[in-house]
Amino acid sequence: MKPMILALSMILLFAGGRAFAAAAQDDIVELRYENRKFIPQTLNVPANKPFQIKIVNASKEAIEFESYKVNREKVVGPGETVTVNIPALKPGSYDFYDDFHRDVPEGKIVAK
Amino acid sequence: MNIRRSLLLLALFLPAYAPPALAQMDPWEFEVYGYQTVPRGMLEIESLNSVVLNGSRHGEKGTSKGTVPSQSMWRTAIEVTYGLTDRIEAAMYVNLAKPRGDDLQYAGSKFRLRGRLFDQGELPVDVGWYFELAYKRTPKYDDQKLELELRPILQRDVGDFSFIVSPKFEKILVGSEEKEGWEFGYVSGIYYRWMRAFSPGVEFYGAIGMMKHPDSTRDQQHYIFPVVRGEYRGIEYSVGPGFGLTHGSDRTLVKFNLGLEKYIGAIFGPSTNPLF
Q1: What is the pLDDT of residue B23?
Q2: How far apart are CA A58 and CA A90, in angstroms?
Q3: Which residue numbers of B have CB closer than 8 Å to A's CBs?
Q4: Domain of A50: which CATH number?
Q5: Which of A68, B22, B140, B147 is the most buried (most CB within 10 A)?
């Protein structure tokens, strides 16, 4: 059982930092998916500060919000709303897209 | 010492400083699982392939756990994974082997649950878990019948780099070694997100043997794989040569994994519980 105890201890140890990490993510930006496009297509966010994206899928199809550079992917079913944590970004532009529908215009996160 | 530096040191030196296996590797799975699980409602089909270019001509040496030598062994695992929730996936594997001069043969099955805790970025280090049962009735490839594997998965993204560390704890449940204790091994990787279609990384796989009485350093298995991976036209790949670092390891292997994902519909809604 020692390995199990070790594994659980590690998880609890890291879980201890959760409240701290979550507290730093006060900023929420909203992104809506409707009529096969993201609205807005550009999300302006402050650089060097974690934030959250609240994704509202107002369409009748499932989408997958994905950003390769930010290393995030999340399925959002029709009519669902989900929140994605984004780490502090250096100033720059980071693309995101709907991985289920490659014909949907890509959006970008601009950190400045 | 801050967490970033600790993780970097751990990822870099884990292979070198792992305690002193006839170490049991899983040669059908040269893949590093990170924190992210297959998204809810997605079905992923993967083909995990490897071939031993320079291995052993005797059984139970190198990556061979049975009587069939590893030299020129071609291994393929067909893995089918479904994203049950935002945080839990279920997978089934069928292992196949093609020894030198022989036909492709069944070599065992595995069933796995993998999950993650909380949302990505909520903890200083993203934490996942891995529970696997391997069912084998193919003694020439592995003479143990049922094996349990548990892993925590720890991932930290720093800029464009991802660091993944995953210690492995294995226990034979049914077989001649069922009274033995736990075996220890590791799977880890460092990746640079360069381009979606092409990104480099380095992967580490190893096993030291039983935790209570590890094999000598010479007999342990440790491998390093420089890899490139990415996604092209909807097909994910991870390819690279592997080099054995100890006498007990096969000398040279090549891995080439391919995967395809398709959304087939979700059973559950978005996760509201940090554990499920």
Answers
A1: 56
A2: 30
A3: 36, 39-42, 83, 86, 117-125, 127, 129, 150-152, 154, 157, 159-160, 162, 169, 182, 184, 193, 196, 211, 263, 265-266, 269-270
A4: 2.60.40.420
A5: B147
